[in-house]
Amino acid sequence: MAYLQTEILGHTQKVCRLYKSALKHVFEYAPNRAAYRYAAVCVRQKFEENRHLTDALKVQTLIEDTKEELFQKQHSHPFRYATSPGGSAYGRELKSPDWVLDLWSPDEKAQYPEYFARREEMKKEYTVYWEKKFGNKAEELHHHH
Amino acid sequence: MTVDKYLYQKISFFLINFMLVIGFTGVFLSLSGVSIFIEWFLGGSSMNFSLIFLFDSISCFFLSVVLCISANVVWYSKSYMATDPNANRFILLVVGFITSMAILIISPNILSILLGWDGLGLISYGLVIYYPSSKSSSAGMITVLSNRVGDVCILLSIGWFMSVGDFNFSIWALLSNTDFSIWVSFLVMLAAMTKSAQIPFSAWLPAAMAAPTPVSALVHSSTLVTAGVYLLIRFSFILGESCSAFLMFISIMTMFMSGVVAIFEYDFKKIIALSTLSQLGMMMFAISLGLFEVAFFHLLTHALFKALLFLCAGILIHGVGNTQDIRSFGSLSLNFPLVTVCMNLANLSLCGVPFLAGFYSKDLIVELACQYSWGIFILLMMFVCLSLTVLYSVRLTYLSFVSAYGGGSLVSVCETDYSLLAPVVILSFTSLMSGPVLSWLSFSCPTLIFLPTFLKWGALFFVVSSVVIMVSLQRLVYFYMWGTVKKFSGLMWFLPWLTGQWLTLNTLKNADQFLKIYDQGWLEFYSSKGISMGANSMSLFSLKFQHNSLKIHFLVFLVWLFMCLIYIL
């Protein structure tokens, strides 16, 4: 493996992920829905043929070989849903982080007095909740000194 | 949310009225053979500033087409961008773009053309990076940097024009024997190539499809990309034989490359962008043959049906859930009957089907090219590129409207929004009428073309055979067909990588070497640091003799001053 393994996958997970990759692969290549359905059935049949295998080495080799085959035959234009990463409509909404509101100037904040008043109250409530749950580390460090 | 509820309608109405005025003015100027110069003059004896606008048939026709497309696109944007929170920024950029384009069109000299040219480049960057995604920002960067190369070429050519005496192309066009240096011809041609996305500057046009669809319809199909062609048409006197030959080679390569890549592309808007690239190559090809009026005619007709194509694409993309992958389309003719009709009209025009707009302009270029006979290779490549145009157009139509539906939910897959449909219908009628009307206006007498029968029927034969081939190929189900060609074309012949990462990476590596070794190395050692270290060591040396005494220091200074005075006197 050329990448860092960050999760431990069970055998079922590995096979299911491989199956989904294979289906995506045939969808990318299929010229129409009927061709995709036929190819998907063929892929399922191939998986069913090897369902009975119990030899772990054979199974792992089969999985690795299939992964390699999918990699070698990958499509030049992988299919991505529009709002998924890599899709055409991904990242069109810009969500500003909450702390940006603290950088507003006083005259801008004065346009929404109730909202910012409630925001200050909520900040204090959150600080009280945090200190109740986790303690006040700053005070503890101060006392130590 | 826009400031004014009817802002888009007001802008569109103003543009339509302006278009009608300019259009009728253009017809009058064309029939009377008159050009109007409007000049504002400032200054007196030694310093003179003047701002001149040129209204002749070419500028009026082009401006009226641009305004027609702009009016329809603004009207279309009212609904298309309705849910976008930054619609104010969008409409401001679009209006700025239209203004820049108008300045470019009515400018009679290269200085004021530069104003419009730079404005187009800058505003198109703002429009491409409209969405805050990383794809848009990369696309915007490649767009603006490619256009910047053209800006530099125009600036250099301005310097050249300054040396020969006049910036106005209308004055130079009147002279019969203009002998320009090959360098200025090359510079102007290079500027046109960057704007019109010819090889090797083709990477930015498909990438710029990250912009919203109304932007693609206005900017990347009919206005910005045709600015380069317009520049060459205006500066037709500047192209010598060698530049024309080079341009012919580049245009043929661009047509071929874009045609092949479009056949293996899966992004709906990128296919149309590559189609635009192919037609720009056709216009440049016509210019290289010396057919400037025909190239201008094709520019106008192409602008109309390509803008129509993009608007139809926008409705389809909106309908299937903002996805642009053609594998999610299919059988859309059932849900979008009107859009199907309009899009097929545009596609058939593009293919050059008889008596539609594209037939009048494109077929004329093909027949005149056959008549001028530049060689069998050029003719063959031209017909191959014609076939490629038909192949990808038929593929687009087949996968969108004929094949089985490959998308998800069918909830929004319908055409009900009249704000989107009305501009499409208007542009369809305009595109339909533009072919015959513009040919009557542009060419007062019909062009006599004498060709052998097989060459005369050649274009039609290639169109029909390409339709048959592509429809047959679509029915074939072989997954890994054309595997290597597909991968090679899918990456656009590695052109984006070659002109993007590879070029900048190598340049940056070399620049890094220069910085470390020369700028922060030897140059520092010998010039700045060296001089300061030398002065420092000399002053330390003199301090040793002075024993850190201020009196001796001032005495030495007085002695030095005395010696200088003796030397001077």
UniProtKB/TrEMBL annotation, chain A:
**Quaternary context:** Mammalian complex I is composed of 45 different subunits.
Keyword annotations for this protein?
Answer: Acetylation, Electron transport, Membrane, Mitochondrion, Mitochondrion inner membrane, Phosphoprotein, Respiratory chain, Transport
Instruction: Give the similarity note.
Output: Belongs to the complex I LYR family.
What does the protein in this record do? Answer: Accessory subunit of the mitochondrial membrane respiratory chain NADH dehydrogenase (Complex I), that is believed to be not involved in catalysis. Complex I functions in the transfer of electrons from NADH to the respiratory chain. The immediate electron acceptor for the enzyme is believed to be ubiquinone.
User: Where does it live in the cell?
Assistant: Mitochondrion inner membrane
Q: Which GO terms describe its cellular component?
A: mitochondrial inner membrane; respiratory chain complex I
Q: Quick one: where is this thing mainly located? A: mitochondrion
Q: Could you tell me which InterPro entries the record lists for this protein? A: Complex1_LYR_dom, Complex1_LYR_NDUFB9_LYRM3, NDUFB9
The topology of this chain with respect to the membrane is:
Peripheral membrane protein
CDD domains for the chain: Complex1_LYR_NDUFB9_LYRM3 (cd20263)
Q: Which residues form the Complex 1 LYR protein domain?
A: 13-70
One of the protein's GO biological processes: mitochondrial electron transport, NADH to ubiquinone
What this protein is called in its record is NADH dehydrogenase [ubiquinone] 1 beta subcomplex subunit 9
UniProtKB/TrEMBL annotation, chain B:
Membrane topology for this entry?
Multi-pass membrane protein
Record's catalysed reaction(s): a ubiquinone + NADH + 5 H(+)(in) = a ubiquinol + NAD(+) + 4 H(+)(out)
Q: Give the UniProt keywords, A-Z.
A: Electron transport, Membrane, Mitochondrion, Mitochondrion inner membrane, NAD, Respiratory chain, Translocase, Transmembrane, Transmembrane helix, Transport, Ubiquinone
Q: Where is each NADH dehydrogenase subunit 5 C-terminal domain found?
A: 392-567
- Which domain of life does the protein's organism represent? Eukaryota
Mind telling me which residue stretches traverse the membrane in this protein?
12-38, 50-75, 87-107, 113-131, 152-174, 180-205, 217-239, 245-264, 271-289, 295-317, 338-360, 372-394, 420-442, 454-476, 488-505, 550-568
What processes does the entry annotate via GO biological process terms? ATP synthesis coupled electron transport
Cellular localization per UniProt: Mitochondrion inner membrane
Q: Name one GO molecular function term.
A: NADH dehydrogenase (ubiquinone) activity
Q: Residue limits of the NADH:quinone oxidoreductase/Mrp antiporter transmembrane domain? A: 107-383
A GO cellular component term found in this entry reads: mitochondrial inner membrane
Assign the protein's first listed, main location to one coarse class. mitochondrion
Record-annotated NADH-Ubiquinone oxidoreductase (complex I) chain 5 N-terminal domain positions: 44-90
What family does the Swiss-Prot or TrEMBL record give for this protein? Belongs to the complex I subunit 5 family.
What PANTHER family has UniProt attached to this entry?
NADH-UBIQUINONE OXIDOREDUCTASE CHAIN 5
Q: What does the UniProt function comment say about this protein?
A: Core subunit of the mitochondrial membrane respiratory chain NADH dehydrogenase (Complex I) which catalyzes electron transfer from NADH through the respiratory chain, using ubiquinone as an electron acceptor. Essential for the catalytic activity and assembly of complex I.
Q: What is this protein called?
A: NADH-ubiquinone oxidoreductase chain 5
Origin species, per record, is Daphnia pulex (Water flea)
